[in-house]
Design a protein that fits this description.
Order of helices and strands of chain B: EEEHHEHEHEEEEH
CATH topology of chain A: Immunoglobulin-like
Largest interface: A-B, 31 and 30 residues
Shape of chain A: globular
Oligomer: heterodimer
Number of domains of chain A: 1
Strand order of the largest sheet of chain B: 5-4-3-8-9
Radius of gyration of chain B: 15 Å
Structural class of chain B: alpha/beta
CATH architecture of chain A: Sandwich
Distance between the termini of chain A: 57 Å
Number of strands of chain B: 9
Strand content of chain A: over 45%
Strand content of chain B: 25-35%
Distance between the termini of chain B: 24 Å
Largest sheet of chain B: 5 strands, mixed
Helix content of chain B: 25-40%
Chain lengths: 152, 154
């Protein structure tokens, strides 16, 4: 009686969307990477972090095999000038969401190891101060590709 | 006119006679805003007819002449559109060019991976590099194309 339940559970877990990871209280969704020109050494990654728990979560680090370093960056505009600053202290209160999106706060992948191609899956590892580790799979998107409009 | 360096040699804005210039500022180590701006510019060019496109020259000026060589810059913008050119300038020419367009630029650290905080407006220039229009970097391709068309009529 226990074996079929176990098999069903494994089958259910295997169809969880690969872009959303729920390993602990932190939920990471809609992770993607903006494909940079092949000559570029940096790329931007985007995602939404949500603290589904009832305690403060503090991010310890974020890494990827695809880059030498990954950092969270704050972006703000004033008088037409964009200001960037590394976010050294990324934390989420219970229930809080942090959105990293195009044209706003984002993740910076520094010193890319390989050329990123559209459709590639980039793995990132986020570690929180309590020692929890989260695997993030972000798809590389070529933003030049337009949705086609059909002309008949 | 201020000499600029492209991968094909020295250029000046005045070389592009009878063309509008769509001028953007940025650097290749910029992961988010600069690629997005160049994407909008390239999409705007693709919205124009072939005849209209011949009358516009998109130019990307690097605020990071230390790391952005003309060769690198050319490869960078070719990713977005074949018709784009990219240039840099050094020393006095660099500061004069920034000043001509009221561009502020600041290197944020001494890290090898330093970022540069810079004015990110998009400029549409007419004869004698006269500023016809200034658009924010987030301006959608549709509106950039409209601005180009409007000034092509004049």
């Amino acid at each position: 009686m226990k074996k079929p339940c176990f098999i069903i559970l494994v089958l259910m877990l295997s169809v969880l969307p690969s872009l959303s990871v729920y390993a602990g209280d932190l939920v990471i969704e809609e992770a993607w990477v903006r494909m940079p020109p092949p000559v570029a050494e940096t790329a931007a990654a985007y995602m939404t972090l949500t603290n589904k728990g009832d305690k403060l979560i503090m991010v310890e680090s974020i890494d990827s095999e695809a880059a030498a370093k990954v950092e969270f960056h704050q972006m703000s505009m004033s008088n037409g000038m964009m200001h960037m600053a590394e976010m050294k202290d990324v934390r989420l209160d219970a229930g809080e969401s942090l959105v990293f999106k195009a044209g706003s706060n984002h993740l910076m992948m520094i010193d890319l190891k390989d050329t990123l191609k559209a459709g590639d899956k980039v793995s990132l590892q986020l570690t929180t101060k309590d020692g929890s580790k989260y695997q993030i799979h972000a798809a590389v998107r070529d933003m030049r590709v337009q949705k086609h409009e059909h002309h008949h | 006119m201020i000499p600029l360096q492209s991968h094909a040699g020295e250029v000046h804005l005045s070389d592009f006679k009878n063309q509008l210039i769509l001028l953007s500022f940025g650097y290749t180590h910029c992961p988010d805003v600069c690629p997005a701006t160049l994407l909008h510019v390239s999409q705007a060019l693709n919205l124009l007819s072939i005849a209209e496109r011949k009358k516009v020259q998109a130019i990307f000026f690097s605020v990071d002449p230390q790391r952005d060589t003309p060769e690198l810059l050319n490869k960078y913008v070719q990713y977005f559109h074949n018709d784009m050119i990219a240039v840099n300038a050094e020393g006095l020419n660099y500061s004069r060019f920034l000043k001509a367009f009221n561009i502020e630029s600041q290197q944020l650290s001494d890290d090898p991976n330093y970022e540069i905080s810079h004015t990110s407006y998009l400029f549409l220039l007419g004869d004698d590099a006269k500023v016809l229009d200034i658009m924010g970097h987030e301006t959608a391709a549709k509106f950039i194309a409209e601005a180009i068309r409007k000034h092509l009529k004049d």
